[in-house]
Amino acid sequence: MNKTSIQIDAIEKSFKDGTRALQPIQLEIEPGEVVVLLGPSGCGKSTLLRIVAGLEQPTRGKVLFNHTDVTGLPPEKRDVGFVFQQYALFPTMTVAENICFGMKIKKFSKSQQHKKLEELLTLLNIEELRDRRPNQLSGGQQQRVAIARAIATEPKILLMDEPLTALDAKLKEHLRLELAQLFRKLNITTLYVTHDQVEAMAIADRIAVMNKGRIEQIDSPREIYRHPKSPFVAQFVGQVNRMQGKLIERDQHKFIDFGFVEIAYDDDLVGGMEDKDTMGVEAFIRPEDIHIGHDHGIEMEITEVMFLGERIRLIGSCNGHKLMVDVANETMVERGDMIYLYVNQEKIIFG
Amino acid sequence: MQMVGKVLNYFLVVIVSVFLILPIIITIFGSFSVYWGTDMFSSGTTLNWYKEVFYYYGNTILFTLAISLSTVVINVILGTLTAYVFSKSDHRWMNLIEEILSLPMAIPGVAIALALIQTHSMIRGSGLLILAGHVIFTFPLLFRTVLGTLRTKDFKILDECAASLGATPFYRFFHVIMPAVKSAVLSGAIMVFLLSLGEFNITFFLYTPFTMTLPVGLFDSYSTLRIEIGSAFTVVFLLLAIPLMFTLHKLNQSSTFTRNGGV
Predict the structure, then answer these.
(1) A230 CB-near residues (< 8 Å, 6+ apart)
(2) I want to staple A141 with a disulfide (CB 3.0 to 4.6 A). Which of A137, A311, B18, B37 is the partner?
(3) How many contacts (CB atoms, under 8 Å) link A and B?
(4) Smallest Cβ distance to A76: which of B154, B163, B182?
(5) Is the interface score ipTM higher than 0.85?
């Protein structure tokens, strides 16, 4: 399959009522790469996707495929596959007709259509649904058909707008895995929108975290999770404890005091902190990076125990600071217990 | 107590049915009587009145069917296309125009007829003016029905989806939108046909002796000829209208139809 890169060049979008949906956005997607736009609702991720598809026009800026400007082209001339959250199957057509719709328009020969149809029915595991109509399918089946239809014409680019959001949790998890495998197999340049960070991390080569119409950070899932570059990213992706610290000096050594824990000050940890001497330091620690110690450490009284299955989340307070701690699911603790904690200092995230 | 309620229910149904249907039944009987005086069949029964209806008004039947069918064809194309355009737009001005387009339902037919005569008096003789009147009068019905369907179901997404698959706007309209709104268009079309078939108000002011429609002919026969011919004419009219009514009812009830039209 020929591969296409996407360049999003200073795309801006304002709506008629003056609200700014997208600040100037710069984004380059490599051929064959899967990039996920992740963000809360209203952050502009869907708008950006629709602009790439040609379903919406940007106020300013350009969209390029393989460095060719496509900004003025209507969607039908862009050769992109689009998968909608609401499946959008054609109600009067059977599954097979739905899948062949694009191939018919693009004038594939009958034998080509037939071959591709068989291939896709097998690939998405929907052979027995061939002659059904959309209203006879479950949500998961409908979305499989929609995906098959979108990739049937072997488009240059695949765009997906929250394709799994309407499905129930179990099915979502299952399809998420299938999608990740499908992307590897197809090796097609994909832009994928979701507000679900687990989904994003499972399928993305790179994640672009969006907030208020701008991209806050674009990195591999691991980088996004381990080294978020802004407080927003830290708090949106995964769970964090927010810590407010101040710089102190004792015995010629600098420390950051977070109230319940003190860590040695290190230039590498906190870039450009010299100017912040008098100001507070904001940092984050993930619940799984705080561990239970044996007989010493930070004292915490447990106020809430939530059994989450694969782990237990403890909520408690130490020195008046509310803290979330994730521990192994066989840990025997109860509400009201006093426990000792230690913080994995290397894992502290500085915003 | 329950028994009394049941009886009361049936009583109501019977009363209403009798009230509505009895005049029609009497008219049907009247159309077969030789002389409809104080008692209906004192002079015997005949089919002559039907002969006379076809003799005097045979051409109005054909003319009416032509007018009604043309009205349906024009409004199916015009109404569906307009509804498609309106469903895609959410502009403030479009909402206003949408209201204006629905106005003919509220305006008395007389007013529409007079306005038409004033504007296009030259084409009055050809019957085109009657067609224009019918198209204007019935347009909102189809337009509203189709627009309503287009708005309730998410056709915007279907349209966008077809576009992303490479379909041009023209292709999308005929292969995606039209099939999906088929049931709405069909029931709208039948309503338009019925409305046009029975239209009297506008036509009465626009007809010439050569361009008389069925309802106007009916009026003509009742007012100038004998009551028996008028009755026979009514029966002919009912024979045209009733099967369509039933089809319409079936269409609206048939759940498979709405399901297949659903998204």
Answers:
(1) A216, A217, A351
(2) A137
(3) 75
(4) B163
(5) no
